[in-house]
Amino acid sequence: MKKAVIMCRVSSDEQAKGYSLGVQLEQLTKYCDRNDISIVKQYMEDHSAKNFNRPEFQNFLQYVKRNKGEVNLLLITSWDRFSRNLSDSLVMLSTLEKLGVKVQAIEQPIDLSIPENKAMLALYLVIPEIDNDRRSIKIKGGVRGSLKAGRWCRQAPLGYKNTRDPKNKPIIIPSEKAKYVKYMFEQIAIGKLQSEIRKEVTKKGFIISRSNFSKLLRNPIYVGKIIVPKSEDEPMMIIEGIHEAIISEKLFFEVQQMLTDNNKIRKLPVYKSLNEELPLRGLLSCSNCGEKLTGSGSRSATGNRYFYYHCNYCAKERYSKDLVNETFESILDDFSFTSEVKVIYQLMVKDLLNCDAKDSKLQLEKLKNSIAETNVRIEKLQDLLVDGKIDSNQYSETMTRYSNQKQLLVEEIERLKKVDSDYIKWLKNGVDALSNLKNHYLNSAIREKQQLISSIFPEKFEFNGKKCRTTRINDVLRYMLLIDSDLKNKKSGQLSKKIELSTLVESERIELSSKQAIKKLSTRLVSY
Questions:
Q1: Partners of 114 in the beta sheet?
Q2: Which of 27, 250, 334, 431 has a 20 to 30 Å separation from 100 between CA atoms?
Q3: What is the pLDDT of residue 517?
Q4: What average pLDDT score do residues 394-416 get?
Q5: Which phi and psi (to 5°) does residue 24 adopt?
């Protein structure tokens, strides 16, 4: 007597067409009754047949291997229930045959003992694969067409959710997480570190990985744009989307500029443990080979522990930590500014605030106008419902979209009102820190010390045993030093002999390269 396992499989779209698991089970059970076949086990699948990495099929395979000889037949209704991949199917048929199991489709029976019938089997197996490939081409074409029309039809990115518009077409709208996305962009724009922002939003329940955070910050979908990937006959395009933006283009491009600037600055070294004795470890370069100096401690014969900065590459440089640390700390004495320069710094920041205040005022007016327009749309929507021109479902979906839009506008207004108080904090703390940068450094924790060093000296920084040498210092501090030296009637740009600037170019007219430079300096000082 034949002992069979019966297997029913259906995908979600097939089930929608009525080709259900129940129908297959009934057909297979009746076939076994008519042909005196004993049913040992049955498996029900709802996975695609693109491959055999299907949970229920793998369970069946393990069962056959554990109970070899108890099953000699696998019954399916048709060959496309078995697989939609010709090459995988032939390999699996061979595997099952070695386990003593033959496969038979009751609607497409084949006697494989006849060699010529293998051609028919190949035909039965390849037709579903062709159908899958053709369907895939249509889907890709449809998705690309939707993207080119400005309609996002894939899984919604963070901050959005998938829904349908009144015409039952897919669309994305801001979700309850949109406020976190907006907050992250705003914080990056004022100079906060990504790691700090991630910690903040995680505490609020918004979980995002480091890599996804970086991708999110560069995704133009949040300003209402959609990227259409390049194809064989079309280049990559950026299309105006029909979905609602979460942030303004101004904020998005500020963040892109910030990210670009940050990429030019040296990344802080990553050590498993930071040593307070070696704050410059990983930030100094070897003057002999150019590689980074590391640092470590060694114990003397008397049991005392001494720390050194040294090069592991050329092994030609080794300096005591006291010599290097004290030399660097003495450099910070150069960053002591006259009261006149502090006033200039205040004026620079205030000028920035005034520019932003004007922008904020215009932006507030636009936001208030947008809220008024949204209120008008809500009223019209209510009239359409009362007049019976739309049903309750259409009303509910559209009302939700308008309400979310209005909420985002209100939140943006609140954010702009808060900006002034934040800027005042930048101004006060920034000036206080500039009054004594060395003291500010000495009283900071090790990680903050390294961040401050990296922001002051964004490029190569060397110690040759006597002096520290660098190619460039922070633009804002550089300009302030030049102004300070002029006010003291010194040679323009002259610093003490403790530090050398190898390629410092001085211009007669001092002009800040970007407003972001002031922002980054201010927020960096405040963060300590």
A1: none
A2: 27
A3: 46
A4: 82
A5: -65, -45
